[in-house]
Amino acid sequence: MANNYATRTDICLRCPRGCAIETIQGPEGEILKISGNQCKLGIEYVTQEISDPRRILPTSVRVTNGTRPLVPVWTPEPIPKRLLMELAEASREIVVEAPVHVGDVVLDNWKNLGIRLVADGEVPHN
To answer: Which member of 3, 48, 56, 122 has the greatest number of CB atoms within 10 A?
Structure first.
């Protein structure tokens, strides 16, 4: 890491190619060079990954009075990676009443951040 420059390699997930994209960052974390991408999606991906990494959270929540004890849920929009574990932990406290249908919002605007958990499965009433 001579001259306070950092090099990192990310595998782009934006298309099936899976390019290994190398970035060189300056002392303040600024991106100085991006290489290895085969399309502009790679540049967008690695820039986002460095500045504000985001992920989809798939998890499950408990269901009462249903034919199954759990229903799968997910965040339909990527959320800041730094919040994943906190939201996963919070989802353990959520309990919904059957019936549950695909698309039902089980958590809306978590912590006033606009983050939603949406049902991705069906659980009929007992």
So the answer is: 122
* Amino acid identity at 119: A
For residue 29, the one-letter residue type is G
* Distance (Å) of CA 16 to CA 12, 22, 38, 76, 122: 9, 18, 11, 21, 31
Q: Both 63 and 41 in a single domain?
A: no
Beta bridge partners of 100: 123
- Is there a single domain that holds both residue 63 and residue 114? yes
The whole model's pTM is what? Answer: 0.82
Same domain, 92 and 40: no
State the residue for tokens 């990954």: 49
- Eight-state DSSP code of residue 102: T
- pLDDT above 70: percentage of residues in the chain: 98
Q: Within 10 A of 10 (CB to CB), how many other CB atoms are there?
A: 19
Q: Report residue 10 as tokens.
A: 């990310």
